[in-house]
Design a protein that fits this description.
alpha/beta, Molybdopterin biosynthesis moeA protein, domain 3, 6-stranded mixed beta sheet, about 30% strand, elongated
Length: about 425
């Protein structure tokens, strides 16, 4: 605990920052629980899930028509239609025990099991049933209109991986294989408060000299999108005693406390002084751009992150420090976002000895993906998070990237074709 703390003595490596955060998070590490698939959306899977069955479980029709043998209709035409005997109709819920021989067919609906011996479905609009027969006026290739057993999923195929964020697509697949519940990690609870005399809440009337509080909500939304129970708790003034009281009052209610703003070394930067006064261990000043003023402390054994008040810097701190530690805790090695290889559209000069989190616009060029670093003037340009569709993380030992050099970017938005 440091009295009167108001200086960044040195910049700490991102590795050291992650190590301190991990120490705190290990104490509040999530546990496994089973939830129904209706409540699994947005949760993080704690175990691999494998399909217990083939999907579909048998060959089935994907359209309304007549199941037949390809060799019986291969020469069909308007002038000389193929004529098949209709043995009956197979409903969707009928057992897959039917079979046909030469010159035979069954009427089927979309989803009906295919009779043994059939390898094609003639669409109903190209067939004419009459008196127990069906006339086929056009040939169709073998396999047409048929979904084969296991075409969607094979028995034993992995459908959900440990550390995956359960999406709506996962829920649909899990339901299709009869899985009613999945093992997930319990949600970490994070309480977030913004600090600053200048802040007003969205919905209030704008007043000269005021700023709408956005960084705290941005951080909470970022965390919630990654399976965290993050709650935005409002705005506190630049008052060291008030912020210290908030930390001490809430450290027992949440797994993690986060503040935004007040992390630099000015007279009104009260958040870092409040944290320093109660922290058992503290790192202040990160070798990160944007995000240099960020801090991590341990209070009553739990982690407290003091994020920058600048929105882009705060997200940079979460990307570079929080994400890798949190993912590791959940058994996930890869980033949440897809990782793509792209070539730099222009030269980029990074800050030596600093991890650089670069907002980029990646597009599809004639020879592959192109990443264009956005030209920005500071870490408060919030709109660049929307204008960018990717993030480039430049390690501290890289001093620059040349035009045309291959890099890896995290895809955060939609890809488009390069213009111009």
């Amino acid at each position: 605990m440091v009295s009167g703390y108001n200086v960044i003595e040195r910049l700490h490596s991102i590795v050291d920052a992650r190590r301190l955060l991990e120490r705190g998070l290990r104490r509040v590490a999530p546990s496994e629980e089973v939830v129904g698939i209706d409540n699994a959306l947005g949760r993080v899977s704690s175990r691999d899930v494998y399909s217990p069955m083939d999907v579909p479980p048998h060959d089935r029709s994907v359209l309304d028509g007549y199941a037949a043998r390809w060799r019986d209709i291969s020469t069909a035409s308007e002038e000389a239609p193929a004529v098949l005997r209709v043995k009956g109709r197979i409903e969707i819920d009928d057992p897959s025990t039917y079979e046909i021989g030469p010159g035979e067919s069954y009427e089927v609906a979309t989803g009906s099991p295919m009779p043994r011996g059939a390898d094609v479905v003639v669409p109903i609009e190209h067939a004419s049933p009459q008196d127990g027969l069906v006339y086929v006026y056009k040939p169709f290739p073998g396999g047409y209109g048929v979904s084969t057993r296991g075409e969607d999923l094979k028995q034993g195929e992995k459908v959900l991986e440990r550390g995956d964020l359960v999406s709506e697509w996962h829920v649909g697949v899990l339901a299709s294989i009869g899985v009613g519940g999945v093992s997930v990690w319990s949600r970490l609870s994070v309480g977030i408060v913004s600090t600053g005399q200048e802040l007003i809440e969205p919905g209030e009337e704008y007043r000269q000299g005021k700023v709408y509080a956005s960084t705290g909500r941005l951080a909470a939304s970022y965390l919630r999108a990654r399976g965290v129970d993050a709650r935005y708790l409002g705005v506190l003034p630049d008052d060291e005693a008030v912020i210290r009281g908030f930390i001490l009052d809430n450290v027992g209610k949440f797994d993690v406390i986060m503040t935004t703003g007040g992390t630099s070394v000015g007279k009104k930067d009260a958040a870092i002084r409040a944290l320093a006064s109660v922290a058992e261990d503290l790192i202040h000043g990160l070798a990160l751009t944007p995000g240099r003023p960020g801090a991590i402390g341990i209070v009553h054994g739990k982690p407290v992150m003091a994020l920058s008040g600048m929105p882009v810097a705060a997200i940079s701190e979460l990307i570079a420090v929080w994400d890798p530690v949190y993912r590791s805790l959940l058994g996930r090695s890869r980033p949440w976002e897809p990782v793509l290889k792209a070539r730099m559209a222009r030269q980029y000069s990074s800050h030596p000895g600093m991890v650089n989190v670069v907002r980029t616009r990646t597009c599809i060029g004639p020879r592959g993906l192109i990443a264009e670093p956005l030209r920005v003037t500071g870490s408060g340009i919030l709109s660049t998070l929307v204008k960018a569709n990717s993030i480039l993380i430049v390690p501290e030992d890289v001093t620059g990237i040349e035009e045309g050099e291959e890099v890896e970017v995290l895809l955060t938005g939609h890809l488009e074709v390069c213009m111009g």
